[in-house]
Amino acid sequence: MIEEGALLWSPSPGFAANSNLTRYMQWLEARGRPFQSYDALWRWSVQHADDFWASLWGYFEIESDGNWDRVRSAEPMPATRWFEGARVNLAEHILRNEVRCDPGATAIQHLSEVRPLETLSWTELGDQVRRTATALRAMGIGPGDRVAACLPNIVEAAVALLASAAIGAVWTSVAPEFGVRAAIDRLGQVAPKLIFVTDGYRYMGSDHDCMAATEALLGAIGTIEHVVLVPNLDPCAMPAVDSRFVLWDDIQRTVAPARGAFRYARVDSGHPLWVLFTSGTTGMPKPIVHGQLGLTLELFRAQSLSTNIGPGSTLFNYASTAWVVWNMLVGSLITGSAIVLYDGHPLAQGPGTMWDIAEQTGTTDIGFSPNLVCRMMQAGIVPGETHDLSALQHAILVGSPASPDIYGWLNDAVKPDLWITSQAGSTEMCVGFAGGVPILPVRAGEIQARLLGMALDCWSSDGESLIDEAGELVMTAPCPMMPLALWGDAEGERYRESYFADFSGIWRQGDRCRITANGGLVILGRSDATLNRGGVRIGTAELYRTVCDMAEVEDAIAVEAMADGASQMILFVRPAEGCCADAAFRARINDRLRIENSPRHVPDQIVAVPAIPYTATGKRMEVPVRRLLEGADPAQVGDRNAMADPAAFDWFATFARDFRNAGLRARRAMVA
């Protein structure tokens, strides 16, 4: 077992010297700003934020109409506005790589459980985007109009996103597996004028027809005027459609201006790029609006300087079109890197599926969730021995905290010199708070450092800055990527209540974290799922690291709920196949928790379960389970269409009912 904080990797002199970050630091030094360490650079980037963001504007050669007089306005978060007077377009910055890169070079590699691996060059990508954008304009779609999609992770979705951005429309998407209710709850809030849909998709070998769901969507969202159908399951067996539908192939026959004559809609810093949604596990999903200008800067900052990709790189992140990671994957094209799109189950061809794709595509940077890595670990595969991963340099862990053992497995089973990074970011901010730094060492279980421009801190409940103590993850200063608003929240009340209610003028992310003495960051779990044991707050990630490392345990979820006036901590575990969840099994778990953590980590109950409930984006449903135990109506707790496995949630709903009834019977017996 690897200890948290153990040194796993240090960049070779050549790796550090050739990094994008080093080139940026050399550019700064040539302009009179030398920095001897990353920490000094980070401190300058937050203490002299205007100078830092202005430097990115110059370094990445942002193209704009109009001039900006100041980097940011004087208003505090969340009303701060950036580079006012300048007008930019994200898609324009992405597609200038048609000229900057070899035009015949690969921009996108894409495959699915239905489609074989194919490639799209920069020239082909630009042509498809311009044809799609021209067709949208011909249908009356313009700046500010909402363009929705209910598409799987296929290349047409990426083209449609870039075409929407190119004309200044506002993009929003859901994945087709979300179901009708989930799609209506999200897309209905933003009143789209046009929607991209598909006939179906394949997942773990099973085909799913989407045409009935499309009809339901069209019936429920009356603002939709145009429907573009993207055949996916079987293009040779087209579903019957009427005059409301335009086929993707017809869109691609549109005559569009040549690259030099195409007109991008350059928009100001307050103009929306896309609307993203929270998971929707409690209440209606929040529609979060992000701007074109802010995301243009963010994609350069995060993907070039932190992820360290550019021409010659191939980035493969396993993601759904409903997850911010997918938006950022497509946006990564801005660096000149190629990307890989895969639609399907991550284990469709067995536990080595992701590595099969990485080998086929020559992936240099691969991203997936720690939960997926755990499943590979449990399967006992050793990708470094079974696959040619000579191109691979970087593994990126996204979506949830990663334990030291996950770092260790990637290092041992995949590649000993692999740069392994974990990320702290959010759908809400659409930004990487902390993550990879190619000139710093990697320590097991730690995110390398706070990223440039991110005034990230760890605070106590009293607003005291903490080092090596658990606290709240906060942002103490604005950045250009902060949400412009929540859609429909005209006065900003819901926005401020969601993120600024706890600390006046300070963004509270809702994560528990710890900043280490060496500058790393450890995410301990969601604040609202944090456990309080005798006044000591414990992040659930601490329990999962210990329990899920046991060979006898497949998975686990921990919650603390009020029952009979007292707080109870319950650890639900899914035993590994063949393991008996008897008293001895529970005793071994308690002993490990007590020894590796503390007596406070020992739960009041350990309950064996058939499955652990997750959201569709791979997060444990800790808060919904807690609310069930405290008596909430299951129908009001979670959106079934946003769950990875609704049956797992149903089991917990039944357990919660019996749990409460048992407490009631006990109280009645005491009265009698």
From TrEMBL:
- What sequence ranges are listed for the domain AMP-dependent synthetase/ligase? 98-481
GO terms of molecular function: acetoacetate-CoA ligase activity
Which keywords does this Swiss-Prot/TrEMBL entry list? Answer: ATP-binding, Ligase, Nucleotide-binding
Signal peptide location in the record?
A: none
Ranges for domain Acetyl-coenzyme A synthetase N-terminal come to: 38-93
The keyword Nucleotide-binding belongs to this UniProt entry's keyword annotation: yes
Which EC number(s) are documented for this chain? 6.2.1.16
Q: Establish whether keyword RNA-binding is in the entry.
A: no
Q: So what family is this one in?
A: Belongs to the ATP-dependent AMP-binding enzyme family.
Q: What is this protein called?
A: Acetoacetate--CoA ligase
Organism, as annotated: Sphingomonas colocasiae
